[in-house]
Amino acid sequence: MTLNGAVPGTDDLLAMVGSSLDLIGAPFTLPRSRILVLAVAGGDSGPVTELRVSRAEYERPIDECTVFRTLSVTSADGSVLPVTGVLPHVIEFGDGVVTLTFAGPHALSIGADGSAAELRLESPDGEVRLVPLGADSESVQIHVDDSRLPELRRSGDHWEHVAETLGVWAAWMDRCPRVRPDLQQMTAFCWWVLGANIVELPGQGKARAVVPSKIGYVGLWQWDAYFIAVGLRHGDPDLALEQLDLAFRFPTADGQLPDVVHDEGVLASSDDLPPQDRETLRRHGSSIADPARPVPLTKPPLAAWALRKVLDAAAPADAGSAEERWTEAAWDTIARSQDWWFTHSDSDGDGMPEYGHPYSSGLDDSPIFDGDLPLASPDLGAYLVLQDRELAREFAARGDRHKAQRFNDRADATLAGLLGMWDQPTGRFRARAAGHSLASYSAVSLLPLLTGELPSEISATLLRALADPEQFGTPWTVPTVAVCDPDFSPERMWRGPVWININALLVEGLKRSGFDDNASQLAEDTVRLVKHGGGPHEYFNPESGRRAETATTSFGWSAALFVDLAVSLST
Hints:
6-stranded antiparallel beta sheet, 14 helices
């Protein structure tokens, strides 16, 4: 690894993270905790004086999960003490006169340095509680249970909790990959994001799920789990495997993997949604399922891609061990899920599976879904080829030549069907909606590069499209819809903004297709975008390089894939 300088210690990394903890896009939280502390939105750019305490919950906006609407601190003379410092383990008020930390995953601890002060807490219903802090007062703990009803307790253990919280974050940051100096600070912040997004799923035996975001996405989405695991493997391969274990834990009887694993179960079909949402979802479903029956919901088949990467980074499993048995079972689960696509999601029986609902694509708002369903899309074809090749490799290693041949033969057939989507006059792959070719020109046309098996003239055409300013060569690339497409929007989700997962897949596709220099350049462009944009946001404006207005901050797969790209660029 080329670092060109002193390798930063854990204290250095914690300080790097502190510079990014603004309590707006990056909340104060703790691995495994549901508690979030955020700045109260104000109308000026002065110091933060009021904080909000919330609890992260599945499918509930953060504004609906408020524990305390405001938390503030005043000194003995009645003046409000502003927030003067934020580190991963502590928030300081008034240069450390009062500090806030965690007392384990389910409580906050607030204490003073001996000076008299007062804690003010305002509940969502407007009730105000004033709690003294100071030399003669013990610290205060705010306990938050699953019902979000807070309980205040007195304690004398505040400074022990400060040390314990520091220990938790130091242990996490010690696993942060050391990378090139120009990438280290953002890598440290992205690694913090991954730790900050760890929650326990009580319904799954308190399993650790690294969620997309504690601000709005509190569950384990299948696709997100794959991308997040790819980044985690560089510092915590065991946690990476835990994400895959959760994603693989609940296949349906016919092999389909669920879209989401959450506190109360899974989301695998429209019947797993609240009743008021079911009919709306079914109206947007396809003829793959009878309109009177549930719409299956899953995510694109990148399970084998992710598992292979994580296993390559993990310690080899001992023969006959529980780890080896789990790995074999995981590959069998992936094989069944792959069969599901061909058996249950190919409505016209042409050998090219289709998306039966936009949710199952991961590209929910893409213009390719403006027309009819089901949708045969070139990205899905590419993923299926890639997954069957990985399955063939696995079963060949087991000595099962029959299965290996079956997977390779199916990959060959899918690749032929994928090449049938190539439109020579326009130089692009076209999706087909209910059998009709679509004019929509999006990044799904580029993703067949992932196969590494395209004819050279097609690969070269896609390479030119990536560089063309009228197609995908925007100032900050790669837009998810081509600039020349009438549906292009630099701000609207999946209709133009840059997504880090699509860029990362294209980096790999360029490598697989023999364009190593172009792959390295796109990787450099991608990490430069995240640095320029101020962090691992959900998606970015391709013209300004800034966070798109509606994009979530501190987003899991953006953080994980920045780490992955930073490691590859530092090797």
